């Protein structure tokens, strides 16, 4: 058994780690999940400038992603609809209407031109690892130059944790990164393609919640037009929620027409005698026209799940961008130095006629020695020491190229290389300036290719979520019959009060047991009920309960005056101590009651009256105050109280 338990523990930990790191949670470096990264790698591989069938791309991606074509296809469509990584052709679904995409064999895609700019694919800079079967290599993680984690957004459920990152506006994110690089303060908020309104007062920089609403056009008192959708909502789901609310009698509408295409347009017509002001709050309360979305920016950072804020992510990308630019400049400098070295070798080899010295040599070894010897007088002109690879390159220069060698062209090329090397040296001293210039250039490129991505679509405003209770009408009768049933579906009996479906009630039975529950349809509470009221603290806290109870062993009688300050839903409590017999419960501040004692020899006084107001109010857990040392037979209460329940 111990072996099996250890095996299960080990396998579960491995499974949980895999789901967290390799499936559900995006990596902070590039904002991509593994399947998305593998799709991008495949698109870079097959990129020839033309559109490719999505089914072809999915098939090619399967050699990197071992989880089947369905997950790849869904991820590719989702990635294409972000409109930043992939250019699409055909029906990729509609984020406004909620319609799905066409089959992969009918739609096409290719890499977005700008994806080549902000994702570093150079194997010398980006680390590549073997794929799952070891036949190919794939990027462990791309080095992204812009904060894709925020621009894309993400949602995923792993083992014991989840992430929910709302998408942000591209221009605002890049502007915030520029401000961060300059040391200025910045603040950013989510922006969804479907528009809508959001309240970010509890957003907590990405780890709180937002309240989002549809945008209404209420210029006509008899018609409501939904022009923008709430965040994370499409027209199909919104219409379904409106239909459900109408069928449940929560809202009064005449008809609903959906004209949504590439923007939202849903017309809600109202019946006679109903106007827009009467319906708007109900739409917010009972439909998806208003939603509360909880957010958590959980990402993989340094191979570990970490919760971050939007500000921290911007700061991370700002530091990372300068590091990427530095690596790219140093790589370019190394490439130029190699090129300069080769051009210098070629010039000396041809201009100083070193190739002539090898014409008489008989063996390969003598030829190589002759080349090394020929360069000895010119060591000072070389960029670095000459190597065997350099000699091999020189020996492979064809005679035709030697005879047509243009010394002026070589000098111009060398001058251009030296000029670029000086420019790189200056850039390396001002990496922050380079990063700011790069972000500015990316904004200009997006402005030319995808200007719609730079415009904010979601309006940030301030409003309070509509409480369903405040909108719900208390128009249902809570009834109690002689059989002991309580509820809104009880026929006959006595009407206690009007309630709404969202109310909770506190019920106290004749045994002294009380509980709080949702308004019941039909619930047996026993014959005889002391108290029934809507369970709101501001109501219940005003009620002073006076309980008269008897010890069944000694038959001594006690009184307890208390209030009920708190409770847990659907949990039973006793207002009298355990084992006591409740004789009476009253909610009046002042009343008189009489104790009738058992007849016994030498007992002359058989009854005694008390005033309840003469006894002090105590805590709910107190045991009560003993009224007398005689055995009590019954209690009679003067006046009337809520005897109607008995």
TrEMBL record:
Under SUPFAM superfamilies, the record lists: Type II DNA topoisomerase
**Superkingdom to which the source organism belongs:** Bacteria
- Using the record, list the residue span of the signal peptide; answer none if the entry has no such feature: none
Alphabetical GO CC annotations of the entry are: cytoplasm; DNA topoisomerase type II (double strand cut, ATP-hydrolyzing) complex
Q: Where are the transmembrane segments?
A: none
Any matching Pfam family? DNA_topoisoIV
Q: Which family does it belong to?
A: Belongs to the type II topoisomerase GyrA/ParC subunit family.
- Protein name per the record: Topoisomerase-4 subunit A
Q: What organism, scientifically named, is this protein from?
A: Treponema berlinense
